[in-house]
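Narrative summary of target 7.
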Amino acid sequence: MKKLLETVGGLLLLFGAVGVLRELTGWSISFLGATRLLTENVAFLHDHAALTNAAIAVVGFVTVMIAESRSR
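Modeled conformation, tokenized:
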């Protein structure tokens, strides 16, 4: 369970961070653009794409921290 949480959290953190970079710089990374599906297809999130990606990165970080705390 710990490895699963770490993997999912790490991927969310990576995708969120890349999404923030993409929104702030306009840099396009096609194979890491998984959050683009969410931000482009949900009307409410389309106007707040950078904040949405930052929230995804935070959720990923929290998930990794939860996985680390479960090991003790």
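The mean pLDDT is 87.
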